Amino acid sequence: MPAARESLLDAAYTALTRRPWSAVRMVDVAAAAGVSRQTLYNEFGSKEGFARALVRREADGYLAGVERALATPTDPRERLTAAAEWTVSAARDNALVKAMLTGCWSERLPSPTLSAVPSSSAVPAQRQADGPLPSPGDFVAIVRDRAVALLCAPGTPRADSAELARACELVIRLALSCVAAPPGEGVAELVRGALPRQPG
Predict the structure, then answer these.
(1) Whether the Cβ atoms of residue 171 and residue 84 lie closer than 8 Å to each other
(2) What is the mean pLDDT of residues 143-150?
(3) What is the pLDDT of residues 148-170, one digit of tens each?
């Protein structure tokens, strides 16, 4: 029931922009999505399972945006700049993304444990959501590794690949610092200044 699941997650995200997670009622989310409360519980199991699914979806959406930024047909430096800009804008526009990237969960947000939880769900998407959720350090590694995979030309010498990995990690850490303490100048200028030479 993928369509109902997405509608429920959309309704939960909308509800979360209006009130704290503790005040979000499952019956109201189900009604807003146009499905029964039983459908919600069949899909997510519990409010905690629902929170995990919402966090997982937002994490996946952030990472998909990183991939889009890194896949633009420009030079590697500009692709890394685009990934940094996406990171900062995604965190600015989405409180869940900001919390995941910084580890700072406000009382308004659901804050599921990052470790895997026992799952008895028959729904594959929920079994995935019940698995481990990425920590801020995991996001750094995931984005760095995806950037290296997309930017590193086949047959690149190991030393050059290691240098590219360092540059990619520098960029994501710089972006995260801009999430925590927004700069006076644009993110792109900071990244370009930190990467004076062409990575990759």
Answers:
(1) yes
(2) 93
(3) 999 887 776 776 788 889 999 99
